[in-house]
Amino acid sequence: MIQDAIWYIALTGMGLVAVGFIYVISQAGKSADAAATSKSAHTSNVLRRWLFGALLVIFVTGSYATLHRFPIPSQDASLDAKQVVDVVGQQWSWAINPATVQAGTPVEFRISSRDVNHGFAIYAPDGRIAIEAQAMPGFTNKLLYTFAAPGTYKVMCLEYCGLGHAPMTSQIQVVAARGD
Amino acid sequence: MATMTLYPDDERLAGGERTAFNLYIISSVALFVLMMLLGLTMRMSQATWLNVAPDLFYRILSMHGAGMVGTAALVTTAVMWFFLRKYVTLHLWAFVSNYVLFMIGAVCIIVAIFIDGYGGLWTFLYPLPVHAMGLWTPNAAALFMAGYLFIGVGSLLFYLDAAAGIIRKFGNLGRALGLQWLFGGSIDPNHPKTVVASTMVIIANTLGILAGAVVLVMSLVNIFFPEMALNALVAKNLIYWFGHMYINATIYMGVIAVYELLPRYSQKPYPISRPFLWSWAASCLFVIVVFPHHLLMDYAEPRWLLVMGQIVSWGAGFPVFLVTVYGALTNIYRSGMRWTMPSRLMILSVFGWAAGIVPAILDGTIRNNLVMHNTQWVPGHFHFYLLLGVLPMALALMFHVIGARANRPPNTGADRVGFPVYFIGGLIFVLAFLDAGHLSVARRMATHLPEWQFTDKVGSIGAMLVVLGMLYFAIRITSGLLKAPAGGSPRDSTANAAG
Ligand code: HEM
Ligand SMILES: [Cu+2]
Fold first, then answer.
1. At A114, is the secondary structure helix, strand, or coil?
2. Which amino acid residue places its CA nearest to atom 22 of ligand 1?
3. Which of A18, A128, B22, B330 has the largest count of CB atoms under 10 Å?
4. Residue A22 sits at the chain B interface (C-beta within 8 Å)
């Protein structure tokens, strides 16, 4: 699951930073003479180039991997989805129509708001966010999502919208695909 | 070398300067403690250890957000002032006016929230402030926004005075940033890092505050003439352009303390270099154009802006890791440094910035935003570099200053206990937020699902430790500042003389 991957990447990254700090801190109390200082200044310059190279590789491959297929569908072109669901948020409820969709085929959500900004988030039956988009007054955001498994999906509001923000929930029923 | 003196003459605080500095610092530490208590209240309420009604919760959240961001700006402005005044002429009236306007603004905000019921959060995201469903009046929202305007005008005054001083000395802002040395030429080894950082902040944050002023005025007009509706997307862009720059400027002002003080404590020179100038020039550009990463889930936003938001968020890691963090670590490596409060806090601050940027970059990625946007991952990463980065930068300067009297950096037994309490509590607190984000716990919710409450409880425990640590720091610093300053002729001292 992508959240777990992100979490482990974050822990690794923060861990590496921590290891670097712990190493340097463990060395900070030692003194070095002039010769040793100039030697370690040299080493540190070489290391910095390697670090720069490593960051550059992460930057380029990471940007390419996460952007070459743009994660958000085109908002101008038709998405040609067989299932279309209209979502309208308002303080403090959701109008979702239809609220039953099929698993396995893409669903196009057209998301808007009647009053303030809301956040349309679909929580999978395991309690984790499957996908989300903002619901902004005056705009319609188009979201394309294919439900992998049937079940009851919970909708929550993920943009603070006033007193009834937390209880502003709803449901989407995802049923097994009809074999046609 | 002059910079190696722990307490150089040109940094001594005398007369009005000392009073102004003490006002800034004592107000800031008191505000931090109060705002942290509000934070703890929210965290414990999410954990169901306290029972706070949702209406009050969102007012507390508005106060905590606006109060913390404002106080971080206030205290780091004092850091910038403290060091910049050595290099350029700063007028005390500008520094004091900023303080006065800040306090007037703060009173407006406090009244708007706790008397008039404003609960539209520090981001005043249009049109929520005028769409409260009866919870607060448009007038309360207007008062809140007026408070921001006072604070913004104060910052602008201070920056204008600083810009004038810098231009008088260096000719123009580009030369102060060191742009003339980016591609060659021999860098003036005495060009102060403080001037480079201050100039960057002046440029970026002035733009941000002006954007904020535009959207505040537009929102105020809309409050009194509701038929003048705004475009919600334009308003959101402006708000985050302002908000992002305003809070990020606190890091860039705060880090000046590290540049200035670290070499004195390590007794190792920390020279200016071409990578340093590149990193500040790049950061200046990055911080101005990175804001669309707050709108990654607004699909109506032009695609190129979203792509820019992600690419620049990632790119922002380069200057931080390669220059500031790397430079600080090289500086202390085998320096024979003794650990005292200022040096401990400085290294913590660099760590907090470096480590906090990792989850920040992950969050600045469109694909990840699809499942992490507005989860507690967001407070997780920004508390990381605010609580464990910006605050320790400012605290380092405070501890440094209170050591001036004895001419020795503070390092009592109680200090040595207070520091880990703050640091370990802070780590527990931010990691609990990040884990919650990973588990899809939403941010900004008064009530949490039962399955979310484990991380709430862990976070609350961490927060209690932070509050204890900060309370101790606040008392220690306040009493240290209020004691008479060192009298007589200043003795030179170096860190090696420190106990
Ligand atoms: C003991 C220390 C602190 C505690 C217990 C604390 C607690 C909290 C909590 C519970 C939230 C709301 C989280 C949510 O959305 O569910 C929050 C939000 C926030 N905190 Fe803190 N915090 C602390 C320190 C700080 C510091 C030092 C800063 C900045 C310098 C800060 C700035 C903010 C901001 C800007 C928000 C966002 C407000 C919003 O969502 O509108 N906090 N904090
Ligand atoms: Cu909401």
1. coil
2. B39
3. B330
4. no
Residues of chain B predicted below pLDDT 70: 1-3, 484-499
* Interchain proximity A27–B333, CB inside 8 Å: yes
The percentage of chain A sitting over the pLDDT mark of 90, rounded to a whole number, equals 83
The pLDDT value given to residue B4:
81
Question: Would you say the CB of residue B250 lies under 6 angstroms from ligand 1?
Answer: no
Q: Hey, what amino acid is at B452? A: W
Give the residue-averaged pLDDT of A57-85.
92
| Residue A76 counted as domain residue | no
Residue A98: domain span: 83-175
- Which residue's C-alpha comes closest to atom 28 of ligand 1? B68
Count of CB atoms within 10 A of residue B451's CB?
11
Domain count, chain A: 2
A7 with B365: Cβ contact below 8 A: no
The answer to whether residues A36 and A111 belong to one domain is: no
- 3-state SS class at A157: strand
Instruction: Look at residue B202 in the predicted model and tell me its pLDDT.
Output: 97
**What kind of fold does domain B9-497 have according to CATH?**
Cytochrome C Oxidase; Chain A (1.20.210)
B434-469 tens-digit pLDDT = 999 999 999 999 999 999 999 999 999 999 999 999
* CB interface of B with A, residues 282-301, below 8 Å: 295, 297-300
Q: A101 and A159 share a domain?
A: yes
Q: Where are the beta strands (DSSP E) in B92-177?
A: none
Every domain of chain B and the residues it spans: 9-497
**A171 plus A88 within the same structural domain:** yes
Q: What is the pTM of this model?
A: 0.95
C-alpha closest to that of B266 among A31, A13, A84, A131: A31
Of the candidates A145, A169, A5, the one whose C-alpha atom is nearest the C-alpha of residue B442 is A169
Nearest chain A Cα to B232, which residue?
Answer: A137
